[in-house]
Design brief:
The chain has 249 residues and is of the alpha+beta class. It has four helices and four strands; from the N terminus they run H-H-H-E-E-E-H-E. It is rod-shaped, with a radius of gyration of 39 Å.
């Protein structure tokens, strides 16, 4: 199939790209609620993982402290039992002093253990709350997916159909022109071309139809006289005459 002239073939591609961009924007909008909900769930899962890690650390600390507390209690009981075997008052008094010191240390350990157990209990409730919230949010996500499935499928079907048309149109554009167009499209999706704005009665006032920067009359003369690519001096879009557009023709 012979290639079309440069500007007409670019304009045909441009029209398709505008429609394609609108559909993709619409699809992104439809999917936005789902993505927000997924982000919310991801944040909750991250919080849950952090809380779980901290809870496990507290539980391990509790186990260690409980072991230390039992060990201290057993030591105190042994010292009490040894009072019955003392031979002097001095030895008896020394053991009582040690028992008193150990009981004070035990009291500190038990207080610290109680505080950590309270922290663990609070954190356990937090974990349970996050899990409950996750269940609610995941249910909400399933509802969103169910409601959007039809819309997403319809839009994606249209996008696929227009993408096929786009590929056919792109094959008709001269390769160098297509490379330029595609580079501009990366910066301006669906908006790579701009019509010249001008009034025949005042050709000193010519501007780009997209960025509205003033342009010289040489762009108008070139577009009227030759089939070549002219680009805006400011935004770099490919220029065309309004009467060249598919809508105008």
């Amino acid at each position: 199939m012979p290639a079309m002239a440069t500007l007409p073939s670019l304009l045909a591609l441009f029209q398709i790209d505008r429609d394609l961009h609108q559909l993709r924007t619409g699809l992104a909008g439809v999917q936005r609620d789902q993505k927000r909900q997924e982000a919310k769930i991801a944040a909750l899962n991250k919080d849950l993982a952090t809380h779980d890690t901290n809870l496990k650390k507290l539980q391990a600390d509790i186990s260690t402290r409980e072991l230390e507390t039992r060990s201290k209690q057993e030591h105190i009981e042994k010292m009490r039992a040894s009072l019955n075997t003392t031979k002097t008052n001095k030895e008896y008094s020394a053991i009582l002093v040690q028992i008193s010191a150990d009981k004070a240390e035990l009291a500190k350990q038990e207080t610290a253990l109680l505080e950590i157990m309270q922290q663990a209990e609070t954190l356990s409730k937090t974990v349970a709350g996050v899990k409950d919230q996750l269940a609610v949010e995941e249910k909400a996500l399933e509802k969103i997916k169910s409601e959007l499935a039809g819309k997403v499928g319809e839009l994606q079907s249209q996008i696929d159909a227009i993408t096929a048309r786009r590929n056919e149109a792109a094959a008709l554009v001269p390769k160098d022109a297509l490379r330029q167009y595609d580079r501009i499209s990366e910066k301006y999706p669906g908006d790579a071309m701009a019509a010249l704005h001008f009034d025949e009665s005042d050709l000193d006032e010519i501007s780009c139809g997209s960025c509205y920067m003033g342009l010289g009359v040489e762009h108008l003369n070139a577009l009227r006289g030759r089939d070549e690519i002219r680009r805006c001096n400011s935004c770099n879009r490919i220029l065309y005459l309004p009467e060249m557009s598919p809508a105008a023709t």
